[in-house]
Amino acid sequence: MNSAMAGVIGFVGLDQLSLELAALLLRAGYKVQAFEVQNLLVNEFLKLGGIECSSLREAAKGVSALIVLISHKDQIHDVIFGHDGALEGLQKDAVIILYSTILPSHIRTLEKNLKENGLATSVVDTYVYKATSENLNGKVVVVSSGMPDAISKAYPILSAMSEKLYIFEGEIGVGSKIKLVTELLEGIHLIAAVEAISLGVKAGIHPWIIYDIISNAAGNSWVFKNFIPQLLSGNVKYHFLNSFIQKLGIVLDMAKLLTFPLPLLASAHQQLVLGSSLGTGDDNTPLGQVWDQVFGVNTTDAANAERYSPEELATQITSQSKAVRKVGFIGLGAMGFGMATHLVKSNFCVLGYDVYKPTLTRFESAGGLIRSSPADISKGNLRTL
Amino acid sequence: MNSAMAGVIGFVGLDQLSLELAALLLRAGYKVQAFEVQNLLVNEFLKLGGIECSSLREAAKGVSALIVLISHKDQIHDVIFGHDGALEGLQKDAVIILYSTILPSHIRTLEKNLKENGLATSVVDTYVYKATSENLNGKVVVVSSGMPDAISKAYPILSAMSEKLYIFEGEIGVGSKIKLVTELLEGIHLIAAVEAISLGVKAGIHPWIIYDIISNAAGNSWVFKNFIPQLLSGNVKYHFLNSFIQKLGIVLDMAKLLTFPLPLLASAHQQLVLGSSLGTGDDNTPLGQVWDQVFGVNTTDAANAERYSPEELATQITSQSKAVRKVGFIGLGAMGFGMATHLVKSNFCVLGYDVYKPTLTRFESAGGLIRSSPADISKGNLRTL
């Protein structure tokens, strides 16, 4: 299919996920063009084969669909209706695909404003995400909703840019509603994960060991599994809080309009605000330090500790599992050393750490592999067990 | 290995998971015996090859390890030190393996009491669970801790009754601490799941569709994925709340002893108490009805609704995935019908539901498979997508 047949798609704003949408659309034969101010994202977009536009109007010109990634309602209004805005470039029969965290009521206002301007242009709202389940792992899922005419126009594009597609026909805002419900869960799970890890550290347990055990137990969540390693290794920064607070504020706003109580989300939101209030002024402070201040613990040091109390030995044995032949030992006390060397003799690959260096030397000469910190052991297990 | 060599293991109290431990121990050549009052569990235990005991003393007699499943500290004290209690039957070198939700401080008291009674008997505490991750799915994991002599005695038994084993040597209570941290997460995730589904229903979205989308997105948790279907189908009953409230109370107690704040768990705990306060006096009331009362929605009816508003059509298309050939449509409006029949022609297996019966007849004659409710479609997809 050549691009003239498939048509042109415009992007207003880009993020990592919209780059994937662009790649899927290009593969389906669409031409894609974008207006975005961040150079890093624009460069990736150009590498894919996209075309950079110098204005909103230009990005909207000649497209059959305009994919808008802007969350603030006033900004969306300006982007579309403002001077040199998208509407000035838009064809009368184009469809606007919203890909943002935005209140359903604001989407309906936008739809109404378009109609009042005498425009046939119709709107579809979407929730776009990467699937997390075993079967669909990493595939792009699009949940979309809109009036029948809008769905009808958007369908070929939605279909091309997704690997699994849900369509709610007959009412706009359903995509956004489901996105807001998911974000409610993400927000609560984030604060729950931080509360849990901090409690564990306060109780004297190494955070990587808590992570290793719980990410495989009934206490697990997608956020726990994916966020905690980022937090413990210092990769998440303070500024992450503010975008989260904003998103959850929109969920609370939606519930308020529905006169619906969200006591647990409200509590999680307040914890995020508390975290945010403890900022040092540096947006790039590792987020773990903020939570350490909230809870009065030192998760950061515990996660990176070279030193480990021999009284808090942790050993981990894998038995009766034919598939697993790699075992980590944290602490090589009398029992631990005996078991570890026994496993070495049984042809296991055994990683060990102990604060007492001569023990490590002895362990190495018995055939064990030594590691420089408990975190290294735990991480090793995560990859292999 | 014959049972005389491997030894005898006693159980005080049984549950589904301890039946699995018993099966693993039997397979390793141990003889197992139990004292339990519930006939159903005893019968399953006997079927495995276990021996029923008529008293605590008898269950403890001749064992190398006594596995105790009792959560209340006073009960544990009575079980061990009471008249005709376990201690009267216990050999001096036996080890007690605690398999309960119990405060670390109570475990230390128990250990002290045993020592003060001049007994060599030592204690190991454990957190036992079925692994939830892809690699270890369903395997029995044991997280254990205790002083070196206790670990040394318990090691062969712990090793035989687990498929993955963690040992924390040098301090008792670590197993329980990790269990309490997991339960904190489970409790919060439970209330979060209920809050999310109720908000979605209030916003007009079918609960099975919310479940289908979110259980595959970043908002997912183990509790959401496994608990919500039970809740929506009415399988979880009111009495479930009280055991949860008790367990989370122990987590809050542990945090209090550590002077550690748990604002989010405290909020979740209060919601559980609110739910509990709305009981009708019938322990077997479906739990969903309790939450419906809390949130002023009707999730129960929505989940089972035969009728579905045609204005809230939901269609689901799977595109570009070669593996998936089964698609469900809820609502067969103008667009939905066209897409559904198009997919039928492309050799997809297409399930459809619509409130308007003539549409269904038309759909069936076009080669679609009709279903009697939206829930049937969603459930069908869960199994196949």
Automatic annotation (TrEMBL), chains A, B:
It holds the Pfam family NAD_binding_11. GO terms for molecular function: NAD binding; NADP binding; oxidoreductase activity, acting on the CH-OH group of donors, NAD or NADP as acceptor. Gene3D superfamilies: N-(1-d-carboxylethyl)-l-norvaline Dehydrogenase, domain 2, NAD(P)-binding Rossmann-like Domain. It comes from the Eukaryota. SUPFAM superfamilies: 6-phosphogluconate dehydrogenase C-terminal domain-like, NAD(P)-binding Rossmann-fold domains. Residues 173-285 form the 3-hydroxyisobutyrate dehydrogenase-like NAD-binding domain. InterPro entries: 3-OH-isobutyrate_DH-rel_CS (IPR002204), 6-PGluconate_DH-like_C_sf (IPR008927), 6PGD_dom2 (IPR013328), 6PGDH_NADP-bd (IPR006115), HIBADH-like_NADP-bd (IPR029154), NAD(P)-bd_dom_sf (IPR036291). Residues 9-166, 326-379 form the 6-phosphogluconate dehydrogenase NADP-binding domain. This is Ketose-bisphosphate aldolase class-II family protein isoform 4.
